[in-house]
Design goal:
Layout lengths: L2 H9 L7 H20 L2 H4 L2 H10 L3 H19 L7 H81 L15 H24 L1
Helix pairs in contact: 1-2, 1-6, 4-6, 5-6, 6-7
């Protein structure tokens, strides 16, 4: 049974709250206080949401509910509920619950909107990361192609030059002489071989 129903049951006596009903009401109030303390709304809510609660859950109905609660709690001492009926309590409490439902609907809508914004941002970041990854892969592939061509092309040229020089084609140009790496060293060594062959041919001819 909800706190509203317990209170309605108590006010239905139109005289005072019985000890059992009052105990049930106090228990529900304690549970409500425990939840409020464990999940303090005002510590985590935005200023706009705090203002929403303050502006919406306010007014005559809310004030009347508090007044009726005080009457209920004091009825066991005073012996009277001041003529308050169960239907009056239930109707007044229903108005307050509807106000709280309005706040709940607004908070739920804002939460859904915030989740949508976060999801959109996450999708955008994922797309950006994916595009960046593809760009890096393409750049890596391009660099790999350039490096492979930088290795295979001079190697092929040197190989062809070696074949022609081995066939006594001493007019063959030695490639990559200007390079300052291993290919340049190989080219200069091949040039020495070509020059030695030319001198040997010159000696033979003479």
């Amino acid at each position: 049974m909800s706190p509203s129903c317990y209170s309605r049951s108590g006010f239905a006596h139109c005289w005072w709250f019985s000890a059992n009903v009052l105990k049930q009401c106090l228990g529900c109030a304690a549970q409500e206080a425990t939840l409020r303390d464990r999940f303090p709304f005002h510590e985590h809510a935005s200023p706009a949401h705090r203002a929403l609660v303050a502006n919406v859950v306010a007014g005559p109905a809310v004030e009347e509910v508090e007044r009726l609660r005080r009457i209920a709690l004091s009825s066991i001492d005073t012996g009277t509920t001041g003529g308050v009926t169960g239907s009056h309590w239930f109707g007044t409490m229903t108005v307050k619950i509807n106000l709280m439902k309005t706040v709940e609907d607004r908070l739920a809508a804002d939460l859904v909107a915030a989740a949508g914004i976060i999801r959109t941002q996450a999708d955008s970041e994922l797309l950006a990361v994916s595009l960046l990854t593809l760009l890096l892969l393409a750049l890596t592939a391009l660099i790999s192609v350039i490096c492979v061509r930088d290795i295979t092309r001079p190697l092929a040229d040197l190989s062809q030059a070696m074949v022609r020089l081995a066939g006594n084609d001493l007019e063959t140009a030695v490639p990559a002489l200007e390079r300052r790496d291993e290919f340049g060293d190989m080219s200069r060594a091949l040039l020495l071989f070509k020059e030695s062959g030319a001198r040997y041919r010159s000696l033979i001819d003479s």
